[in-house]
Amino acid sequence: MNLIEEAYRRLFPEKEFVYQTELEYNRRLSSFNSNIKLYNNTLSVAMNLQWKDIDDEIKIGLIQHLLLRLLKKKATTPNIHLYHHFISQIPTFMPKGESDPMLAASFERINQQFFSGAMEQPNLRWGTASRNRLAYYNLHDDSVTVSTHFQNAPEHLLDYLMYHELLHKQFKFEHKNGRTHAHTPAFRAAEAQFPNFKGIDTELQTYLSSRRRIGVLRSLESKRSSFLGFWR
Ligand SMILES: [Zn+2]
């Protein structure tokens, strides 16, 4: 079966399929990543090698997802649902490496306090000394990465970043009308459970200012800037 053609035909049954196709698996793309290109009437899809043995129905969903992005169209199909379900399950089967002890301790505090100790530990690692991206959760390899600026931070500031990122793991992502919403109202309500949540952004800013040498503070995390006016 030509997966690209099949994905296209199921998505646009009324249209003629007029493309050449290329499907490649490689190791250059990061974990469970993929991309699509259209040039000279050739639809070219590349997937990380990890996709190779995944069920064709899920891959058709992935290709449909890529096609919609390429063609700037919105739709949802049973295959796209399968694909999103599969992606949301990745954290449960990704192998875990060694985690940093300070981050593991923070994870354990938050896990006990907010998740009844029931959350499975993701990969935990320090990133770079970034002021723009203080922390992030990567669903594709189930990892939380924290800026090294927080290696000497007060414990509750590190814990707050950890809590925010673990909520991303908990909520995964909600998929609505072809768009992904990371900070849903439910997410924000859960986040506000953190002790002294109202003052936490001021504290983060004060802490980072105390470590500031040059440059201008930008958003806490690009996605967050829309609701944390203080950081805009
Ligand atoms: Zn976030």
Which CATH class of the largest domain is shown? Answer: Alpha Beta
- Radius of gyration using CA atoms only: 20 Å
Q: Which ligands, by name, code or SMILES, are bound?
A: zinc ion
**Subunit organisation of the chains:** single chain
Low-confidence stretches are 214-232
Overall pLDDT metric: 87
User: Number of folding domains?
Assistant: 2
CATH architectural type of the largest domain: 2-Layer Sandwich
Strand order of the largest sheet: 1-3-2
Distance between the termini: 49 Å
At the fourth level of CATH, the homologous superfamily of the largest domain is Metalloproteases ("zincins"), catalytic domain
Q: Based on CA inertia axes, which overall geometry fits?
A: elongated
Structural description of this entry:
The chain has 2 domains: 3-93, Zincin-like (2-Layer Sandwich); 101-231, Metalloproteases ("zincins"), catalytic domain (Zincin-like, 2-Layer Sandwich). It is 40% helix and 16% strand. It has 7 helices and 8 strands; from the N terminus they run H-E-E-E-H-H-H-E-E-E-H-E-E-H-H. The chain has a 3-stranded mixed sheet with strand order 1-3-2, with helices on one face. A 3-stranded mixed sheet has the order 4-6-5, covered by helices on one side. A two-stranded antiparallel ribbon has the order 7-8. A hairpin with a 2-residue loop joins strand 7 and strand 8 (179-181). The termini are far apart. The model is unreliable at 214-232 (pLDDT under 50). It binds zinc ion. Zinc ion is lined by residues 164, 168, 182-183, 221, 223-224.
